[in-house]
Amino acid sequence: xxxxxxxxxxxxxxxxxxxxxxxxxxxxxxxxxxxxxxxxxxxxxxxxxxxxxxxxxxxxxxxxxxxxxxxxxxxxxxxxxxxxxxxxxxxxxxxxxxxxxxxxxxxxxxxxxxxxxxxxxxxxxxxxxxxxxxxxxxxxxxxxxxxxxxxxxxxxxxxxxxx
Length: 163
Prior knowledge:
Elements: E1 2-5, H1 11-24, H2 36-45, E2 52-58, E3 61-70, E4 80-87, H3 96-110, E5 115-121, H4 125-133, E6 137-148, E7 151-161
Parallel strand pairs: 4-5
Antiparallel strand pairs: 1-2, 2-3, 3-4, 5-7, 6-7
């Protein structure tokens, strides 16, 4: 397995992983599937200063991806980033999410960020446990702020100090 920055050729496989999460989980709070052109704009944004998109690959196969980007738009938050991590459905439980997150955390530290935030659907215990193993601490849960699959969702915030 290799972890490296995402490139345009990865986008079709990233799209499959992303849309699977939209269709099958509460990890992404939308019902609208992404398009390849939308993912291309997304990757272009993550190539700018203060953002990053990485992939875990096995040969030509994208096994998962992770990103960080601005947590909030105001300049007072410029040293804080929010992360996302997604692993292909048939490759979960194999340590890929942790490997991606370790690389992402290292890159954020090297870039001079102070804090990384994770915003996780409160029922996603796998993601919460992953972030806990990496040193993230619970920063609070906001109840009933999302809606998907005919139910209200709670959002757990987790925080990792990078310095």
